[in-house]
Amino acid sequence: MVNIDQLYSRAGTGRPESKTGLTNLFNALHAARRTHFEIWVSLRRRRLVVELGDPSSFGTTAYWLMQYSVHSTRLAAMSPRLGRTLKEETIACLLGGFGIPAEMALAAFDTLRDRGLLADGNQPTVEALQDALAAIRYSNGKIGRYRFARQRANRVHAAVSVFKREERIPEDPTSLRKWLLTLPGIGLKTASWVVRNWTSSCDVAILDIHLIRAGRRAGWFPLRWGVERDYDALEEAFLMACRALHIDADKLDAIIWEQMRMAGGAVRPTSRGRCRHPARSGSIGTNPNTGGTHGRTGIVGRRPCAPDPEVR
């Protein structure tokens, strides 16, 4: 089994987010590509043995370690929050979801906030929310219509009502997620997304389709585990993998989301449960020594949420 501390020590980086010694880290990972590390998932009493893999191969654990070493310092300086208050953060995440591109969700949130519909003490009607979602303004000035306007208007209205009357909202991440699950239209993924953005907690995982595909490809998630019945086990596996690798779950999650989103269908599992390699062009997987910098900013927090099975 690979000793992560010794690997970092040999690379001369100390910790993976160091910007120095990237070439040494790549060489150390390449030399250890056939070695393994363990993930213990207590909820399933199962030990997963994961190969480190080649750092130049998209989707291996070693690849994500290289990406982390390049991007984590930049991400640490960025705020993951979308809203100014917990209420705004919750509504921003409510507006994301299955079939909703990140740009559309952010445009919808900005439109509601700019119109004063999310102001403290305000209780907008469902009709007012729906009208606003029918003409959302994008950052480039373009006007568009938000999908599922009626459904999300009802959910936003319900959330605003709860926040208006609730006096004591839990502050610790675990209790806050449990409380968020009581709101209409919020499942584990959306609740985890709110908690991650608002508290920067590394004790929750946002198990959207991008992270699931990446985890299966890297070997962190067994193929038979699904989000609907195994969310807790999958979350534990991801968090334990991050701890074993001595990296922060929130930063790795953001990096995976951005790169898997850009890769799109190229990394979807085939009928045999394997994933196709994305094209070796553009910004992903082209140069492991530079981390394949994608050139996009603001990726922490600004993410759509995959569908919650309980609210589809």
How would you characterize this protein structure?
There is one protein chain. With 312 residues, this protein is mainly alpha-helical. The protein is built from twelve helices and four strands; from the N terminus they run H-H-E-E-H-H-H-H-E-E-H-H-H-H-H-H. The chain folds into two domains: 4-78 and 204-267, no CATH class; 86-199, Endonuclease III, domain 1, CATH 1.10.340. The strands form two sheets. Strands 1-2 form a two-stranded antiparallel sheet. A two-stranded antiparallel sheet has the order 3-4. The model is unreliable at 270-312 (pLDDT under 50).
**Average pLDDT metric:** 83
Terminus-to-terminus distance: 42 Å
Structurally, the number of domains stands at 2
* Helix and strand element order: HHEEHHHHEEHHHHHH
Rg, alpha carbons: 20 Å
Structural class by helix and strand composition = mainly alpha
Which strand-content bin applies to the residues?
A: 5-15%
Q: pLDDT below 50 for ≥5 consecutive residues: which ranges?
A: 270-312
| Helix fraction by DSSP (H/I, runs of at least 4) | 40-55%
Strand order in the largest sheet: 1-2
Number of strands: 4
